[in-house]
């Protein structure tokens, strides 16, 4: 559901009761009392659940935690999820990372601290909690396109990726850019 509220210790009411029931159902045993009160024991159960799924174990129930609990599946959008533009030796270098496949709650959050090292060939992608495996390069106008797979927390299967690196001039000049941060947007599309 898209309307679940954020919950944290000290909250109470029907949504907290629903959270408790959903956690107990997930674990197929009673891991928390169904009292409708968000106490320290419930916060601990939420942290444990979040850690198991690769989410930040805050104990607060945010949208990503609700998605994990309710089993909603998402796919990556049909556009780059991370882009950057840097200058290397007077050459403007444009980067775009597109992902494919379905993910669960933690998939989008897994793109935290995403970087690409352009000094390596093929470029090395890295982010917290994920493993990127390079694939084959292809030449595109003004640069190169690299395809591969990555394992992200919250994704049932390997996620495919395409990294595009282009410049306006001197196609090989982008290697001098070194490591570049790729801020990611996570506009996931719900799978219906």
Automatic annotation (TrEMBL):
InterPro entries hit by this protein = Peptidoglycan-bd-like, PGBD-like_sf, PGBDSf
Any one Pfam family match given in the protein's UniProt record, by short name: PG_binding_1
Ranges of residues in domain Peptidoglycan binding-like: 16-69
Protein's UniProt name: Peptidoglycan-binding protein
